[in-house]
Amino acid sequence: MKKILLSLLILSQLLFAKHFNQKVQYKIDAELIPETKTLKVKSLMTYQNKSSDVLNEIYIHIYWNIYSKNSYSRKLAELQKDYYSQETRDVEIKKVVLFQSDKSQENVYELDNTVMKVPLIKPLQPEESLQVEIELDEEIPPEGLRMGYYKRYFSVAHWFPSICAYDNFGWHTDQYLGTGEFYEEISDFEVNLTLPKTFLVFYTGELLNPEEVYNESILSKLEQAKKSDSTIRIFEPPEKIQIDDSQKKTWKFKAQNVRTFAFACYEDYLWDASSVGNVLVHTVYPKQLENLYVVEGMKAARHAIKFFSEKIGPYVYPQMFVTVGGSSGGMEYPGIVFMGRGQIGGISSYGTASVIIHEIGHNWFPMMLNSNEVDYAFMDEGFNTFITNLAMEELYGRYNNKLKLEGLLSRVFSNSDVRTDDYAEVISYLKSGYTEPIITHSDRYEQTQAYVVNSYPRTSMNLFMLQYIMGEKAFNELWQEYYRRFLFQKIYPEDFFNLAEEIYQKHYGRKSLRWFFDQWFYKDYTLDLALKEFKVEKSNDKYLTTIQICNKGRAIMPCDVEIEFEDGQKEKVNFEVEDFSKGIQFATKTFTFSKKPVRAEINPDKRLLDINRLNNTSDFIFPVSFGRKPLINLFVNPFSYRLNFSPNFWFNNIDGLKMGLKVEGSYLSNEKVFELGLFKGMREKHPLGGELKISDRLDFFGPLATGSFRLFNYEGRRGAELIFDKTFSRYYGRNPQFKLKLSANYFDAFDDQY
């Protein structure tokens, strides 16, 4: 609690601090040598102090030292027994020269793994400038941590010395450890990149010398693509490429108002392009993924540019490259994203489309809206996940947009949708006993799972709740004003929170939203609203309906209650957040209707992050969904108890063929688990056999505690088991783990035929 209050106090001071950006310009000459997988880099950085502070030193990221043998990240991974990518040699710093006030000093610096400190010749006053020139040689790492090489395919990022961000908190000198991402100044770049002429380069910003690096065919087709919303094939490689690394080209680029500069280069990839307004959208991919990228890939990329531009604000860069390079996943940079080769088509097409949309969406969060990914990962990953989910729903429909299932596949696999899948993941996490607040530094999470869920789906679910509270009109206004007010600015959580409250009050009067952001972002509260009473009394021609809701969690929220009448029609009534404030656990309201209510349900739209949907209705029994068990079930239904039926077959020499029925039920896969199997042998005189198992969480004993009961009678054996299981672990789902198991057993082998 003390840490939370301190964070609130520090962040509140930002209300009175002026937003500013340091002015940074990079002039970089680089050469990529494919044979040795190395980069030679010479960078001249011009830095102007736009803050009101006097600076005595400057800090610079040398990101690729994360891959070195003795990096802090590697030591941390070894300590936590995590996987780590193949190591490279240390970045070789050849020269560091500081130019300041007509003076210079050479090779005066301290290097602490991924951060370099350069003391200044004299203090740098506000509005004064300096320059730093750095030359280095570095080994391109194998793919695996956001970028790298595979054979002669290169996806390259964070490859140049990058000046650390300076803001109202001072210098941000966080070591690059791999979990937390980046926080950069919005900068301008001039880049000259030399490499063998067999490569095509895809990049951040603008290409200044297309006539020198493209042939006439590519130039012509690019002009055609700029005028077309159809997909134009820009380049198709020959069957065999004559590799000659001695023949080189220099590509010249310019990029303005970008956080960083990234590029990819390939020799034998297909290249398509299509226009969305004045933005040229490219997809670049290997031949084996053509069926995916020529249809779903381009469709998703075009949709992302259009949807985010309409929902948030215009895309400001001239083009967007979607390139396939890494082993899996995706990674975002200004104007270019790296997609993994593991993102495939078929039933996974929608999933690949979601990754494309998500990575392109990062050009808004945090590339144009410059939040600190290291301190506040939710401001880019979570905001982006929310808008990505909306984009997926518009592109593929509200439901069944996780897998592309057609024909027989729809009977083999279960399906879900991005919103429901996120809901299930978040609810399971919130009930795990290993939760942490969303506002936690990326590298200081105790649990990897907490970082992932908090930064992505949990923030997205919180935004669905904020949308519910603010209403569609005010909520949409929030995003567009956020873009207008903070484009290319450094942004803090309080900026977003205060803006939301400002717009909320504009529409609804002097109502606060502080309670919302406090409990859902700074604290670790959960919401559990239970319908405790639903009583209907007839008075004259009216029906007095009393509804009582019990708040079993610490979080408070307004909520809708949907009333269903005996004629099948429905109507919503509302409980305000004030009904649950000041520690009120039971909120009771009476409503008058002209028709007889027969049923009530809390949170019918499923936008509130309620951790137990089984107590949300007035039904005699909790909500149950029935169905045939799919052969492959990949998803969990968080909104009801799932009961599956499936045939059961077995064979042994005594009974012959055995046939029966299996019934399986659970909530969130590990609560109120019920399993019943009945089967009978086809030969005479062999009785019906079966097995019953019931298990549930025992949260009274802390996380990862379960109790189970089992009865069985089949194949000459019968018995019973009563089991208590408890796992002790500091880390969720990771070693070391210590397990305690207590059991009481009865067993009888009563038939010696078996």
Shape: globular
Question: What is the top-level CATH class of the largest domain?
Answer: Mainly Alpha
Q: What is the number of domains?
A: 4
Global mean pLDDT:
94
Largest beta-sheet details: 8 strands, mixed
Q: Can you count the beta strands?
A: 40
In the CATH hierarchy, what is the architecture of the largest domain at level 2?
Answer: Orthogonal Bundle
User: Which structural class do the helices and strands define?
Assistant: alpha+beta
CATH superfamily grouping of the largest domain? Neutral Protease Domain 2
Termini, distance in Å?
62 Å
Please give the order of strands in the largest beta sheet: 5-4-8-2-1-14-18-16
How is the CATH topology of the largest domain named? Answer: Neutral Protease, domain 2
Low confidence ranges: 1-6
Cα radius of gyration in angstroms: 30 Å
Total helices: the number is 14
Measured as a percent range, the helix fraction is 10-25%
Strand proportion: 35-45%
